[in-house]
Amino acid sequence: MADVTTAGMGKQSLTRFRALGRKVIDIPELGLFLAWLLVMAILGLSTPNFLTPGNMVNIMRDSSILLIVSAGMTIALISGGLDLSVAAVMAIAGVVMGWTYSQGVPMPVALLAGIATGPAIGALNGQLITRARINPLIATLGIMGVCRGLAFIWTDGRTIPIHDAAFRFARAQPLGIPLPIFFMIAVLIVIYYLLGHTKFGQHLYAMGGNADAARQAALNVGHHRRLVYILSASLAALAGVVWAGLGLGVVDKFLEPIFGAVWGKVVILAGIAMFIQW
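Given the sequence above, the corresponding structure tokens read:
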């Protein structure tokens, strides 16, 4: 009798193990994670200093800017939209902060001025898309060109030299960790909670799945879309001022934020955005 019971328990355990294995294999992001592990292993074996803590911190610092702006792009994609202007918003935000500070304005005010360009441009994107009913691809592409042109005109196509240490606030290292990493962690936690644990996040998924059905369910799709583009541009502006605060000038990378959000079905930082599966 005991042998039969033991055999039955063994079969149940084996069945549960197989079911767990099938669930793991069915995770769409598993291939991406394994590819990442392979790349890390190759680089670790070929470069002795690659896997050192110092180098890992440097990689995280350099990647933090892309992750911040990609978080905003992720929200736009989940809601069924697209924001091609984020890179240009990063550039204009850095220009506004640098120019404002160069006029003798205190650094905190200059920082807020740079970040404020984000919601302003995002609101314009939202109005063009929801009120004027312009395709998001066309609307944000046009705003991208406008922001690039404004940044060029504002600076006269020249670098604005700022050697003040206060301007390079992003070089600070609280607890020995670069400040941009703290910004990145804070943004990802907020986005994770927003998308996975709020009605707003549920509404975004509903809009992305079927906007017409969401409207019929009494969801104000236009209002939510405007908020999405304001949030996306705000995060892009934050990334822009942090990049400028590193003393690296302004950045206008067109496709990287899109790749950062699309790569691996909107996976950020090794699966932090796997809300649908979990």
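The two ends are 40 Å apart (CA to CA). Try to locate this feature in the token string yourself.
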